[in-house]
Amino acid sequence: MRNTLNKAIFCTIVFSVSFAVLSCAPSYNTVKRMQKIEEGVHNPTTKEELQEAIKKFDARALDLATTEAQVGIWYKILGTRYLDQQLYGKAFECFQKALTYYPDNANLYYYVALCAGYLANSTMDFEANGPASSSIEKRENYLRLAETAYIRALGINPKYYRAMYGLGVLYVFVLDESEKAIPHLEKFLSVQVKDTNAMFVLARAYYMNYDFDKAVALYDRIIELKPNAEKVKEAEANKKTVLDAKFSQGK
Asked: Taking the mean position of all CA atoms in its chain, how far away is CA 188?
């Protein structure tokens, strides 16, 4: 019994992003030199000169901080645009850069995890001349990065349900560590009580851990909710597989 991995739902952000602005952002040192030229403040010595210099540079520092914050937002928006186009490598780079501006943003860690998962699936030795272990190791590194990023997102926002679901899918279908998915998916479904996609993933986790009764109960719940004919049919087939496994083990 193999369920297809559910596609992640991306949030479309409707803004216009200028890459030229991002690539040409002035450095701190450049801005500082410009400030000195514009303000005529070089090496203040008297009390009055120092007070005047502080006043002028405080205002400039605020402008610089605002500009840098905006650059972080632009990187995030650009990353989501790349995600929409399925350019996961470029999106990954943008979200990494955005994190240097906003290191405590749960959304950015979620997007990093999402991209890392896709990049893991596309990892190959395109030169076909390296050891097989190198591409396997690279894939494993991406997957562990995805796990770490999801966990970091949940550490910042424990109620980040998209991260709970993403981590559950990663554990069940990719890392084959389904027991770790169970608490995250149970918490997810305690709030998102009619999310049949999460029910399928959690039922799979229960099945892989030989908790057949809980798996059957979830498939029954999906059938009861009747999300669509295809899902009902899949739930019925999966339920039969679980019951067959249960009876074969005499449970």
From this structure: 16
Phi-psi region of 102 (alpha: psi -120 to 50; beta: other; left: phi over 0): beta
Per residue in 131-187, pLDDT (tens digit) is: 656 788 999 999 999 999 999 999 999 999 999 999 999 999 999 999 999 999 999
Q: What is the pTM of this model?
A: 0.73
Grouping H, G, I as helix, E, B as strand and the rest as coil, residue 184 is: helix
- For 9, residues 6+ apart whose C-beta sits below 8 A from its C-beta are 162
The burial of 123, by beta-carbon neighbours within 10 Å (0-12 exposed, 13-18 middle, 19 or more buried), is given as middle
- Which CATH number is 237's domain given? 1.25.40.10
**Residue 246's domain spans which residues?**
163-251
Q: If DSSP codes are grouped into helix, strand and coil, which group holds residue 159?
A: coil
Q: What are the residues whose beta carbons fall under 8 Å from the beta carbon of 27, sequence distance 6 or more?
A: none
